[in-house]
Design a protein that fits this description.
Blueprint (H helix, E strand, L loop, with lengths): L9 H14 L5 H8 L3 H14 L19 H14 L5 H11 L6 H10 L6 H4 L16 E7 L12 E7 L5 E6 L4 H15 L4 E3 L13 H6 L7 H12 L19 E3 L1
Parallel strand pairs: 1-4, 4-5
Antiparallel strand pairs: 1-2, 2-3
């Protein structure tokens, strides 16, 4: 004798277990109703159905059947053909507007979107969006790259002097130095730079924004950067003079024992 195979969802299995407990008298109908968050009347009806039909009683009678509200396949085919012929570059919302206005097709936007996806006319947004930014890997050694920037956050949170946080962070280890200043000026940035050199020694590269402290507006500046020359700002001249003078890596060794890097230049 061949046995019937029931395909039950997790929800069906949970309900069937409770209904069997009620049927065997291990649990009252009220307790079963509270556990399944249903009414006592529904529990009584389902227990009676299980006694008559068996475990398949928990499966809804309409499962696997097409919805009575489903559109005819001919309507879907005609709609897709209209879109391919006249509205190929439209999204679901705009295509639906024209279909309703000029062709009398009345469907929901989600239904139309599903039809367009099945026909390959439209892709899900998560598939259409390309990666905008790919995170680069950090440098492998301390001193290879220093990120240098200024934050204009309202540090005092209210009335008082406007403060700027100027910071230099090592890309490989996130170690760095920072100081508050009343102005984001060349002199304040030079003081921070000297603090870095005293503590860690010279670095290899520095990544900065395109502020006037680090770049000039001369038309041939980009050509100079391609040739390996530094922008002629005070900070750029200072770094270039250190390189040409062959100054030592710092007045003292870094506290963590790592060495500084020679040949400084600015990138980005």
């Amino acid at each position: 004798m061949q046995e019937d195979i029931l395909v039950l969802t997790r929800k069906d299995r949970d309900r069937l277990k409770v209904l069997h407990e009620v049927e065997k008298g291990h649990m009252t109908q009220r307790q079963g109703a509270e556990q399944l968050k249903l009414t006592d009347r529904w529990i009584r009806a389902m227990v009676a159905r299980i006694r008559e039909e068996g475990d398949k009683a928990v499966i809804h009678g309409l499962r696997g059947q097409a919805s009575a509200r489903k559109f005819d396949e001919k309507v879907e085919q005609r709609t897709v053909q209209l879109i391919e012929r006249e509205y190929m570059d439209f999204g679901p919302a705009l295509a639906l507007e024209h279909l309703q206005q000029h062709h009398g097709i009345r469907v929901s936007r989600e239904t139309l979107r599903q039809w367009m996806m099945r026909a390959g006319i439209w892709k899900e947004r998560k598939q259409r969006i390309e990666a905008v930014h790919v995170w680069r890997r950090r440098k492998s050694c301390f001193g290879e790259l220093v990120q240098w920037d200024t934050s204009e956050h309202d540090w005092l949170e209210g009335p008082g002097l406007r403060m700027y946080l100027i910071a230099m962070l090592d890309d490989a280890t996130s170690r760095g130095v920072a100081r508050f200043a009343a102005h984001d000026s060349t002199s304040e940035n030079m003081r921070l730079l000297w603090s870095w050199v005293e503590r860690y020694g010279r670095f290899l590269d520095a990544y900065t924004d395109r502020a006037g402290l680090f770049e000039t507006n001369r038309p041939n500046q980009r050509d100079e950067e391609r040739d390996g020359k530094l922008a002629e700002t005070q900070i750029g001249r200072a770094l270039r003079e250190w390189e040409s003078a062959g100054l030592p890596h710092g007045r003292r060794k870094p506290r963590d024992g790592s060495r500084g890097f020679s040949k400084p230049r600015r990138t980005g």
